[in-house]
Automatic annotation (TrEMBL):
Keywords linked to the UniProt accession: DNA-binding, Transcription, Transcription regulation
Top-rank taxon: Bacteria
Native source species: Rhizobium mesosinicum
Name of the molecule in the record: LysR family transcriptional regulator
CDD domains documented for this protein: PBP2_CrgA_like (cd08422)
């Protein structure tokens, strides 16, 4: 007879990419996960994954079995959570991906009181600035900063995000302070590379305008982008949830070029067609209330 523990082990191994990582997520030993996977394969009479020292890949049988196996595991988890929620308790596993800088500065401090109040929620929070696909990467939801573009996702806005062009006093003293969009073309920029092209996008009365300043430095992390701007390496377009304190204390100076950057949001998104759990909705409501509108990190300067 097929055991649910074996199916769960198989799904976890595929989503994690290795037995070791699956064992960490399941809070089991590596040997237990391997044994459960081997027992499932024996029961099915088919090899589900190819194992090598470097990587793990699905067999043809494994790929065919994965979709239904994942559905079974989610249904079991949702059933257990529904029973707990009927008793007024939020419980069960939850896996969310979030960006590093926002997570460290604001998401973590907002989540800790919620998790303390709901100790039966088993939250795994993966901090990574790369763009992830919640469905294929096994997340219940993602939290992201930016424009909401993926139509395969259902997005809930948690907070508005105000972004400002900034530079250090040292940079402005050496290179001057731009006063218009066209002036930016003669300046060095520090760009967030996870957005793709090294450019800045602004709203004007004539429509959207894209500015491509000279590349001073490209970085895929918001904290380091902030540090590079403070060190005078170029002009940066930074959200106030990162740059607010350093603008207030004068280490960074806001640059007004007569146009505002395109609007962005902090949002939570889950795959389309997947019914979000009560605990995910509760976390989203808690974060929205905690961040506020306008968000607490966005005072007037």
């Amino acid at each position: 007879m097929m055991k649910i523990e074996g199916i769960a082990a198989f799904v976890a191994v595929v989503e994690a990419g290795s037995v070791s990582e699956a064992a960490r997520r399941l809070r089991l030993s590596k040997s237990v996960v391997s044994e459960r996977l081997a027992e499932l394969e024996k029961t099915l009479g088919a090899m589900l994954v190819h194992r090598t020292t470097r990587k793990l890949t699905l067999t043809e049988d494994g790929a065919a079995f994965l979709e239904r196996a994942g559905r079974i595991v989610r249904e079991m988890e949702d059933a257990a959570a529904d029973m707990a929620e009927r008793r007024g308790t939020l419980s069960g596993p939850l896996r969310i991906a979030a960006p590093v800088s926002f997570g460290r500065l604001h998401l973590g401090p907002a989540l800790y009181p919620f998790l303390k109040a709901h100790p039966q929620i088993a939250l795994t929070l993966d901090m990574d600035d790369r763009r992830v696909d919640p469905a294929s990467d096994g997340y219940d939801a993602i939290i992201r900063h930016g424009a909401i573009a993926d139509t395969r996702l259902v997005a809930w806005k948690l907070a508005r995000s105000r972004r400002l062009l900034v530079a250090s006093p040292d940079y402005i003293e050496r290179h001057g302070k731009p006063g218009s969009l066209s002036d930016l073309n003669d300046h060095r920029g520090v760009f967030y590379t996870n957005r793709g092209a090294a450019d800045w996008r602004f709203q004007t009365e004539e429509g959207a305008v894209v500015i491509r300043a000279m590349l001073g430095l490209g970085i895929n992390n918001g904290d380091m982008l902030h540090d590079a701007a403070i060190e005078g390496l170029g002009i940066a377009l930074l959200p106030t949830f990162i740059a607010g304190p350093t603008i207030r204390d004068g280490r960074l100076i806001e640059i007004d070029v007569g146009a505002k950057p395109e609007p962005e949001f902090i949002y939570m998104a889950h795959p389309e067609g997947r019914n979000p759990s009560a605990k995910l909705r509760a976390i989203a409501d808690h974060l929205k209330k905690t961040f506020g509108d306008p968000p607490y990190w966005d005072p007037d300067f």
